[in-house]
Amino acid sequence: MGILEVKGVNKRFGGLQALGDVNLSVQEQTVHAIIGPNGAGKSTLLNCLVGKLIPDTGSVMFDGQSVLGRTPYEINQMGISRVFQTPEIFGDLTVMENMMIPCFAKRDGSFSMTAFAAVRN
Ligand SMILES: Nc1ncnc2c1ncn2[C@@H]1O[C@H](COP(=O)(O)OP(=O)(O)OP(=O)(O)O)[C@@H](O)[C@H]1O
Ligand SMILES: [Mg+2]
Fold first, then answer.
1. Where are the beta strands (DSSP E) in the chain?
2. Which residues are found with C-beta within 5 Å of the ion, ligand 2?
3. What is the pLDDT at residue 121?
4. Where does residue 96 fall: left (phi above 0), alpha (psi -120 to 50 degrees), or beta otherwise?
5. How far apart are CA 44 and CA 54, in angstroms?
C-alpha cells in the first residue's frame, strides 16, 4: 500500500473525458513524474489530488485517509502540497517567506508569523 493510492478515477467535463480509469500507487520517499501531451489530463489529475476538482468516480487515498470530500485546506494539512506550473507568490513576502509557507501550513493549520518576523530581522 503506497502513501498515495489512486483507484479508478474518472473525470468528465461535459462530453469530454479528461481522466479515464486512472490508477496509481506512490510509495513513500519516491519521486515520480506524470508526463503526457497537452490536454492529456495531467493538471486535471493533480487537481483531483489536491481537492480543486472532485472526481466523478474513484478514490484518492493519502496515508490511509480519503482526500475526497475534504477542502484543499484540509488536504494540505494531511500533507499534500502543490507548486503551480505558473508560480503564484505572495508579493509582499520575501522569497524565503514564500518558500516557508508550505512548511508552516501543516502546523495546526496556522502560520507562524513570529517565525516570519525572525527571518525578516
Ligand atoms: N475546467 C475545465 N472545463 C472543461 N474542460 C477542461 C477543464 N479543464 C481541463 N479541461 C479539458 O480536459 C482535458 C485535460 O486537460 P488538462 O489541463 O488536465 O491537460 P494537461 O495534461 O494538464 O495539459 P497541459 O500539458 O496543456 O497542461 C483537456 O482537453 C482540457 O481542455
Ligand atoms: Mg496542465
1. 4-13, 16-26, 57-62, 65-66
2. 42-43
3. 46
4. alpha
5. 10
Side-chain half-sphere exposure of 31, counting CA atoms within 13 A: 0
Domain ranges of the chain: 4-78, 89-121
Q: What's the sign of the alpha-carbon dihedral 6, 47, 77, 70? A: negative
pLDDT in the model for residue 48 = 96
* pLDDT at 94 (0 to 100): 93
Pocket test for ligand 1, best of 19, 44, 52 (most atoms within 8 A of CB): 44
Domain at 4-78, CATH homologous superfamily? P-loop containing nucleotide triphosphate hydrolases (3.40.50.300)
Give the DSSP H or E segment for 120.
helix 113-120
Q: How far apart are CA 65 and CA 59, in angstroms?
A: 10
Mean pLDDT for each 10-residue chunk of the chain (121 residues)? 96 98 96 96 96 96 95 88 81 88 63 50 46
Nearest protein Cα to ligand 1, atom 29: 39
